[in-house]
Prior knowledge:
alpha/beta
Amino acid sequence: MRIDIVTIFPEYLEPLNVSLVGKARARGQLDVRLHGLREHTTDVHRTVDDSPYGGGPGMVMKPEPWSAALDGVVASARPEDGPAPTLVVPTPSGRPFTQELAHELAERPWLAFAPARYEGIDRRVIEDAADRMPVVEVSIGDYVLAGGEVAVLVIVEAVARLLPGVLGNAESHQDDSFAPGRMADLLEGPVYTKPAEWRARPVPEVLLSGNHAKIARWRRDQAFARTLAMRPDLVARWERAAMDKHDLRALAALGVEWDEPSGRFRQSADGVEE
Ligand code: 6GU
């Protein structure tokens, strides 16, 4: 996959040289190219922002440097890249970034990122880009960052680990909490390693039993309990067809039951049943 990133702070993206993404780049699985937005200014002050039309606080990023930078990225297309990248614009007013969207982006051969600072980029830049390439405006959560660079790090890391050959077999993503297929919307439970006892805390006995069916059952029960505690909103997404009779018993013990009228699982009225 090829990734172009246009930013006023290329140094903010140095973590892309480290760990999983850094290794994927070194192996040639990921071709990341950073572009300084200020290289595309024409005035002595290298101005990238100006005051907003209509008034209000803060500054808006000027269209000309962005269009020059993005035109340059598109003009650098090689045959294997396709005609133009999918443009990802990080913004708190974007569509929520999810594992599903990460999978979608991981299918594209070429991504470009346009992280903004200040109050954002002049709207016409996004509209102009959308005439020539797919554009997706993405938010990484319900909070406000000072700029989109950290969101780029988040999105690139989530996408890179889905690319073929980037994760080793040992660290495969089949068990990811939000992986589609298997069982989406179930958080992973606790994990343990040696020593078997540490500061008077033993590892749960079942994990030392060697009984793989029992261990799988225990892990699933832990995942149900964890999800209920941390993300009760996910319970409504659980599918009846994904549950066997052991699951239904475990859920009942946690006060969760199938509600036929709504076609959803829900927490029973007075909490734990039985
Ligand atoms: Cl993508 N950008 C900024 N600036 N703030 C955010 C965000 C993005 N996602 C959540 N908050």
